Amino acid sequence: MKYKYLILGGLVLLGITGLLAACGTATSTPCPTCPTPPPAPTLAPCPTAAPCPTCPTCPEPEVKDVPNEALWAGSGHADKTAMAFNDWNDTETKTVPATCAKCHSTTGYQDFLGADGSEAGKVDADAPIGTVVECAACHNSATQTLSSVTFPSGIEITGLGGEARCMNCHQGRASKVQVDAQIEKFAVTDFDIVVAPITDAQGNTSNFGFLNIHYFAAAATLYGNEVKGGYEYADKLYDAKHDHVAGYDTCIGCHDSHSLEVKVDECAVCHTDVASVEDLKNVREVSSLMDYDGDGDTEEGMFYEIQGLQEILYAQMQVYAKEKTGVGLVYDVAAYPYFFADADGDGVPDQNAEGASVRFTTWTVRLLKAAFNYQVSLKDPGAFAHGNKYIVQLLHDSIEDLGGDVSALVRDDAGHFAGNTMPFRDWDADGEVPYRCVKCHTAGGLPEFMKNGGTTVVSSNGTTLTTGVGAMEPSNGFQCTTCHDPAGEWPARYTVASVVFPSGKTVSYGGKDADGKFVADDANLCLLCHQGRESTASVNAALAGKDLDTVDSKISFKNIHYFAAGATIFGTEVKGAYEYDGKTYAGVNLHGPNDEAPINKCTDCHDVHKLEPKLESCAVCHGDSALEDIRYSTDTTDWDGDGDVTEGVAGEIATLSEALYAQIQAYASTTAQVGIVYDPATYPYFLLDADGDGKADVNDKGAFVGFNAFTPRLLKAAFNYQYSQKDPGAFVHNPMYVIQFLIDSIEDLGGDITGYTRP
């Protein structure tokens, strides 16, 4: 096609050239003179348009009924006079800094959420002054889908509802992470060294100073060790989120989301003496019955328990500061930076030349941690409700770390409610409690177990399985609804007619009626967990077909598990311990003074919430004797053969347990030809001692090595030894049963039982 264009172009050019040539010849005819064109007509001017009418002033949009406006208007979020919204009015820029804008302006919060089109999760610019927390702060497209919150520790809490809006601000601005980061920055290893300023390569000087959690960090208190808002000390366990009860375990579950007021009338449903917010200070749940501050008052509310610990910690901080740094310390809750120097010891802050209070600067690592926790406890005024156990633990540990006397203080709750202990915290890293453990180690496991008709059975390979319950998230101890049926006549407990034990045997504290049917009893609830996880049946199943004295690396230790009190009480009726063939064993221990009113049930002997023994009941027959010193009044049998017939039955059992352990070690050394040691706190409890030094061997990673040279005979004895250790109340629950299986275990291993008396 391009060639065709070239040809046409050439022809046109030739034509033009020829035309020019013709016009330029002498013989050509001259062009005629063109006529002058007529002048252009004059156009009429455009008509002048009429002036535009003045637009009327548009009226402000009128919304007659803004939902919840009156409630919001009386809240702290709407207080235009509050320092929280006016602290920057006199600054040069007249703006709220980006570091503060998220929580101190509507514009900043929208910026943080990305509701203004910016990147979510950070504030991009300073915000204008003059706003409070307005409707648009919480009601926008971004908050509609907000379901997670990241805390200063960097930990993200997911799966949230409307409470996420609150938690973005009410989380504090520092945590254990920031405290540890400052300690690392200054490379401090000795807690008792006063730290001097440091200068970086650019010449910037940094001081080792106080770190502030900031105000109203309610979410950090509520979630406890899950977000690590307080300074948590190494090798200590802390409460997780305070779940309270369903429906009242979030910000908006307990507070009106517009007025911010506590729903006191709803609190009063359970806390019958509550009629005002002030009354909440007097509340303590049945899961909080300890004397945490050591003042002897277990009736005062948790607010006052925490207050008592705060006073003890503050006094200890002042003593420590003076002794370790030589400078006194005083605290002012209303003046930044809160901690001030008191060099002259007059109890008030020192003043500089300008009359300003002198900040405290001679910090040590220990003092810094304690001061941070002290501030955490004070800056959440509702901490006594949000997460009182967590605060108690932080204060207790801070006092202890500064060298204070904590002997009269209490840190942990009764076992069922001790959310800071391994029975409830062992699965935090995994994020769920496996189905085998949920029944007894979560708040919701037991109700789910009963609801689904779950039962405990022994499988063909000898392992114990719990059916009817799936995996659950870790709990912060039990809740009221773990034992009390919310669908029944509150606070009635769940009805349990009978309980199946790991051996497959079924019993009931209520016995049977005339028709042979089991009768329900409240104490059966206890048996559902306090039954152990193994039995004679599961041990036999695991050892079937094996030679009694042949080492078999496939034999693994069988663990009765902890606090199998129910199995001990019922003895041979449920065969919780390993019972040897050809031997007879004691049945249920009726204990009490007569058959009509025996004191043998869990609920007869223990406070159902504190779990402590009812010593006043024991004293009816046993006087003021300590439980460990009690033996049946007419009993003078020397069960352990040590010649002492006055020691308590606990002493008799202790001697036999020691003898069995010695026999286990002797048998392992001669028959298995390898040493064995026992550690009650280290799974799998029986550990290898190949070099015979009496200490557990460790692998190349420094971990203890489990014993792996069991024979069937050794496993049976080890199982019974563990049983005697893991039911610390066995000497009360059924001492004759325990003495029987201890003596039989010693005998089966070839030990000399001369001098022992078997019941």
Describe this structure in words.
The protein has a domain at 69-212. The strands form 7 sheets. A two-stranded antiparallel sheet has the order 1-2. A two-stranded antiparallel sheet has the order 3-4. The chain has a two-stranded antiparallel sheet with strand order 5-6. The chain has 29 helices and 14 strands. With 759 residues, the chain is mainly alpha-helical. Helices cover 32% and strands 5% of the residues.
Task: Briefly summarize what is shown.
This protein is mainly α and 759 residues long. It is built from 29 helices and 14 strands.
Strand residue content:
5-15%
- Tally of helical segments: 29
Helix content: 25-40%
Q: What is the topology, as strand order, of the major beta sheet?
A: 1-2
> End-to-end span in angstroms?
119 Å
Rounded Rg? 40 Å
What structural class results from the helix and strand content? mainly alpha
- Low-confidence region ranges: 1-28, 457-463
Q: Provide the residue-averaged pLDDT.
A: 90
Number of strands: 14
Shape: elongated
For the report, how would you describe the main beta sheet? Answer: 2 strands, antiparallel
Question: Which features does this protein show?
Answer:
mainly alpha, two-stranded antiparallel ribbon, 14 strands, 5% strand, disordered N terminus
Write the layout of secondary structure elements.
Blueprint: H1 2-23, H2 69-73, H3 83-86, E1 95-96, H4 98-104, H5 106-113, E2 127-128, H6 135-138, H7 141-144, E3 149-150, E4 156-157, H8 164-167, H9 176-185, E5 198-199, E6 205-206, H10 218-223, H11 251-254, H12 264-267, H13 302-325, E7 328-331, E8 339-342, H14 365-379, H15 383-386, H16 388-401, H17 422-425, H18 438-441, H19 445-451, E9 456-458, E10 464-466, H20 480-483, E11 499-500, E12 506-507, H21 524-527, H22 536-543, H23 565-570, H24 602-605, H25 615-622, H26 649-672, E13 675-678, E14 686-689, H27 712-726, H28 730-733, H29 735-748
Antiparallel strand pairs: 1-2, 3-4, 5-6, 7-8, 9-10, 11-12, 13-14
